[in-house]
Amino acid sequence: MPIWDHQHVILEHAVLHVRPGAADDFLTAFASAEPIMAAQRGVRTLRLSRSIERPEVFLLLVEWDRLEDHTEGFRGSPDYGRWRELLHHFYDPFPFVEHFEYTAFGFDGGHRDTGPMVPDGVVTPHDVAEATNRFRLSAGLVRLTENPRLQAVAQRWSRQMADHNRLAHNPWGAEEIPSGWTSTAENVLQSWQHASADDLLAQWAGSPGHRDNILDPAYTDLGVGVAVATDGKLYATQVLARY
């Protein structure tokens, strides 16, 4: 799984002052809002931290590919209305949001940041999507469009499985998928970190239910997520949808 090149992303920064006595309700609402952000085009990471000295103050940090992905893409989308409805009434005063670019200074885990790193042998979501489309083409079907918003949902769930080291379906998948779809399906698997894209596709294709999802002619879009657990197990997710 690639580690993002932090030198080429935009960092959104907001200090959130929550109304007195409402912090617990805010955290509950934020849990519902997080999948909305995870599904946005261009979003890379999201982190909400709570002040130790002032428990009703929170720090929101979001990494974006481009400034416009936040200021125009997300804020101009219907999803922003739902985000605002869930969270904005908690703030007093309303937060001032700023955007930052990374400098050349800083370190992570005791090591200087030397740029992007991709662990050897770990397949990428794009590789898996390409293998999926080759399989569909061999069956006489059209290619699926790689949808970055579906990929965000798939990647988040793969990371969740890897963090807990447990294979499971996403119980909130249908709610997290961006609106507009008419049918959807999810495939998940567990393999090992040196498995190739073709290895993963063969594992899915060997299961009738997963194979049927991949070869369903109704689907138009695809998102793939891949994550590796600390013991080397690889977890992958396919989210298929018809738009």
UniProtKB/TrEMBL annotation:
Stretches assigned to the ABM domain: 10-100
Transmembrane segments annotated in the record for this chain: none
| SUPFAM superfamilies in alphabetical order | Dimeric alpha+beta barrel, PR-1-like
Q: Which Pfam families match?
A: ABM, CAP
- Known PROSITE patterns for this protein? ABM
Q: What is this protein called?
A: ABM domain-containing protein
What is the species of this protein? Gordonia desulfuricans
